[in-house]
Structures are given as structure tokens and as C-alpha cells.
Amino acid sequence: MTQPTAIRRVLATTGEHLPTALRLASDGLPVLPLRRGKLPFGNCPTCAHNACGGRPNMKAPGPCACPHPCHAWAAATTDPHVIGSPPWASAWQHAAAVAYHPGGADLTVVDLDDPAAIQWAHETLPATRIVSTTRGEHWIYQGAMQSANSVRPGVDIKSLGAYARWLGNGAGATASLPDPVRALAVKEPVSARTARQGRTVPLRGYGGECPHRTPTYLDRGVSMAVQRITEARSAVHATVYRTFLAVLSTHGRCGCLTDTHVGRLFTAAQAKGESPRHCTEAWTNALTTLGL
After folding, report:
1. What percent of the chain lies above the pLDDT cut of 70?
2. For residue 65, with 0-12 CB atoms within 10 Å meaning exposed, 13-18 middle and 19 or more buried, which class applies?
3. How far is CA 53 from CA 43, 50, 56, in A?
4. Inter-CA distances, 228 with 51, 127, 161, 217, 286, Å
5. pLDDT for residue 9
6. How many CB atoms lie within 10 A of CB 209?
7. β-strands 137-142, 175-176: how paired?
8. Gap between the Cα atoms of 74 and 85, Å rounded
9. Pairing relation of β-strands 155-158 and 107-112?
10. Could you give the CA distance from residue 84 to residue 91 in angstroms, rounded to a whole number?
């Protein structure tokens, strides 16, 4: 497709970064310019100190409403007219690199910053497309999730709500985002931490008759519930709620469920992408439905 005259004129004065950005945008990657130090350009005077109020939902993919390359990753766009026209044109003239919003392209970048992190990835994660960086590697997966920093030593997750520097196509085929990567960003619920410390406080009993012939009966039921959540391939939120409902309908009235059991259920749900808030809401709704 023939480029507009204004963009061709800008290309003649902006060096290598604008052509790269336009090429990536045509492939569906939302891009933005970075200045020296791998930092995004500062907000324009209208948006300085977030005076504009920012975007209504800064965790969702999509461009910022401001016509400038403002609000860091939220400015990322695939629109060639925005990328190659003023006021973005002046930013490209001073840009030190091109960045992109992985989550906006349904991608997740596992940023590995040192040899130990890279070794861990090779031992733990499924093979995928790998891009070399200054200090380590980017492992790129198909699928988006919430970004998180320092999920383990030398490992950051860059997807929704973050940007990654473009360093080339890399090598290898892009694999689907696996559960072990999603689990990296899961904040362990308090109940799971308490269980690990050996303090398993029983939930409140409801005066019902205990149906557990042996402790193994309860443990087997919770294990089956964890497996049901883990194996969910769609409608995860609904599966989590139905599983919580089934567990509570069988084991919720006698007070035998402990924080250890609840922690296992919540951890499994969060590994599938559920937030702690969603887990709590699903558990509370199940209790309400059963009159507990």
C-alpha cells in the first residue's frame, strides 16, 4: 500500500525507528517510541502529572485518547497515520528504540535478565520463540495476561499494562501461553501461606453431620476439585464457581474444611488466571447459594 506523502516526508528525517514501527504496526503490534534509557516519552503539557485523568481503564489494551505518545504503553497503536504524523513525528526524531505493547497483540513476554533465570526457563517452561536481549532473553508466548515484575529472581512478565523493547523476530515458533507462566503472576492467597506455615484454622461449622468416613475422603474430594479447575480449557470463571459450589455442598456444613483446603482451591483457580478478588467472590457466592 502506498504511504501517504506526510509519512514519506517524515520517514526521510526520522532514521530507522519509524520504518520499523510502521512495519510492526502493519503486522498487528501496537508500537510506541522510547527515548534514551529505554524509557517512554513523558506526557504532553495537557497530560502532565495525569492532569487529563489518564485513561478510564489503564489495564486494558488500546491507544491513549491523547494524540501525543503519552501514558507510556497506553499510547501504543497500530494506526500508521498516528505513528507517522505530528506530534508523533517529533518523538521519532529523538527516539532511541521502538517498543510495543505485548498484551495489545495477545502476546506475553517472559523477560529473563540473567543466566540463572534463563536456565530456570529452559528447565521449567515449554519451548517458544526466543529473542536475545542485552542481558538475557525474551521468551514470547501467544496469549495475554496481567503483567508482573520480579515474579522470581531475574524474571518479569510483560503483557497487559506494560511495554517491551523490540529487539527483532528471534528464533523458534511462538507457543501458546502455558499455565506455569500464568501461575508466576498469581499472588498466593493468605490461606495458602498460612497452610504452609502449619496453621490450618478450621472454617466455621454449621452443625451438620460430618460425612467424612476418613480424612482421606475429604482430601480426595479437594484433589478432584483442584484437578477439575486445572483442566478447565474454557469458561474458567464459571468452572471455578461450580467447583467451589460442589465442594461446599459436600464438605461445607460440618466445619472440616480448613484454610489448607481452601488455599489449594484458590491457588488452582489463580493459576488459571482468576484474581484473588474473583476467587473470594466465587467462594462467597457459593456460600450464599447454599445458605451457609
Report:
1. 80
2. middle
3. 12, 5, 8
4. 47, 26, 30, 17, 17
5. 52
6. 6
7. parallel
8. 18
9. antiparallel
10. 10
Neighbours of 46 (CB within 10 A): 11
Using the structure block, give the residue that is written with the C-alpha cell 540463572: 116
Nearest CA-CA partner of 291 in 257, 245, 255, 242: 245
Q: Which three cell numbers stand for residue 249?
A: 455442598
Dihedral-angle region of residue 240 (phi above 0 means left; psi in -120 to 50 means alpha; beta otherwise): alpha
Query: CA-CA distance, 83 to 85, in Å (whole number)?
Result: 6
Contact between 181 and 125 under an 8 Å Cβ cutoff? The reply is yes
pLDDT tens string 154-181: 999 999 889 999 999 999 999 999 988 9
d(CA 98, CA 171): 19
Give the residue-averaged pLDDT of 234-261.
82
292/289 Cα distance (integer angstroms): 8
Number of C-beta neighbours around residue 194 at 10 A: 17
The residue length of the chain stands at 292
Query: Phi-psi category of 273—alpha, beta or left, where left has phi over 0 and alpha has psi -120 to 50?
Result: left
Bridge partners of 108? 141
Burial 228-260 (b: 16+ CB within 10 A, else e): bbeebeeeebebbbbbbbbbbebbbbbebbbbb
**145-158 burial string, b = 16+ CB within 10 Å, else e?**
bbbbeebeebbbbb
Higher per-residue pLDDT: 136 or 287: 136
Q: Residue 89 in contact with residue 95, Cβ under 8 Å? A: no
Q: What pTM did the predictor assign? A: 0.61
